[in-house]
Design brief:
Layout lengths: L25 E7 L16 E7 L8 E2 L13 E8 L2 E3 L12 E8 L8 H9 L1
Antiparallel strand pairs: 1-2, 3-5, 4-6
Amino acid sequence: ILMSDTIPCLLSPWSEWSDCSVTCGKGMRTRQRMLKSAAELGDCNEELEQAEKCMLPECPIDCELTEWSQWSECNTSCGKGHMIRTRMIKTEPQFGGTACPETIQRSKCRVRKCLRGPGMEKRRWKEAR
């Protein structure tokens, strides 16, 4: 009777390394080989798969922004004016990520008509009664 550990493992050559598991940044790649000898000839403790780290160019990081703020008050107390709202950049774009869009918006606003000259308010008040 042969001792099981006297039979050498018959192994196929290693396969080519697989592609990296990611398309950018840090990932893993693997390669395999096959056991060619029959299993009943004894246990084979050789490794059949190997893995290693792989590194591809950095992934693009897109610009990230906070939500818009509330609109500001109108900048005039009467007549036409404007109001603004803003948002902050949370993440600057890197490695070819999408650029940041506008971080400030203006909008027209209109407050009640400006009264011209003295006496306008009194006249209006009389008409309203």
